[in-house]
Write a structure and sequence with these properties.
single chain, 233 residues, alpha/beta, Rossmann fold, 3-stranded antiparallel β-sheet, 25% helix, globular, disordered N terminus
Length: 233
């Protein structure tokens, strides 16, 4: 029998932008996700928490259409074929996935072309939004890890997605830049975006998050409206 979903008093199922039902993902004999059922509402910022191996990254990859579930269903923006709405999903992987030999503008210009965005103004705007200089000609290979993370976030929001899935966006980012990134995510949430953030630095979002979603051993175990002091690591 499939376990009942961990319900959230803050999420109304009929308004769900993202819903998963009985979601399982297995890699050989290892089960990364074990029957996850949950809904995520529009205009909410969710922080996904849990130890390494809890299934957080695998959940994001399934929602982004980058991993095929072994069992269960995923629906994003009303579509069970996630690829049909991929243009409305922004995804930031833990690795930056940038082209080292290119500048920030050249990277963004390339990814913009994949969305049929042809104007440099859009690229410059999102680069500035994450606190970088669009005119900097330096190749990304010479960027600090924090700068790379910010540029990776710019790539994820380039297409103005309705759903934003972020995996450890604050990794190796200095405190000031991390606060600026958190502020940007808050403003995007306030504009109606649905944002899921996997992070081990939950305290950065404790005042911005609408809900904290806790995972353990491939399952969602609880959903809370606040982050307790002892848990804000």
């Amino acid at each position: 029998m499939r376990p009942a979903p961990v319900k959230s008093s803050l999420t109304t199922p009929d308004l769900a932008v993202i819903s998963v039902d009985g979601l399982a993902k297995e890699f050989g004999r290892f089960a990364a996700l074990r029957g996850v059922s949950a809904e995520f509402a529009p205009g909410r910022l969710y922080v996904i928490l849990g130890d390494n191996g809890a299934g957080k990254t695998t959940l994001l990859r399934c929602l982004a259409g980058l991993a095929r579930p072994t069992r269960g269903t995923v629906a994003v923006l009303g579509q069970t074929d996630v690829h049909a709405v991929s243009a409305q999903i922004g995804y930031m992987a833990h690795p930056s996935l940038l082209y080292d030999e290119m500048s920030a503008m050249e990277n963004l210009r390339y990814f913009a072309g994949l969305y049929d965005i042809r104007d440099d103004a859009t690229c410059a705007r999102v680069i500035a939004a994450v606190g970088l200089d669009a005119t900097l000609a330096r190749p990304v290979a010479q960027y600090s890890q924090g700068m790379r993370q910010r540029l990776s976030l710019a790539r994820a929001i380039l297409n103005d997605p309705q759903v934003l899935l972020l995996d450890e966006p604050f990794s190796n980012v200095d405190a000031h830049s991390a606060r600026e990134m958190a502020g940007l995510l808050t403003r995007m949430r306030d504009s109606g975006k649905t944002i899921l953030v996997v992070t081990h630095q939950a305290s950065l979002l404790k005042n911005a998050a609408d809900e904290f979603v806790w995972m353990e051993a491939g399952k969602i175990t609880r959903r809370t409206a606040t982050l307790q002091p002892m848990e804000a690591q």
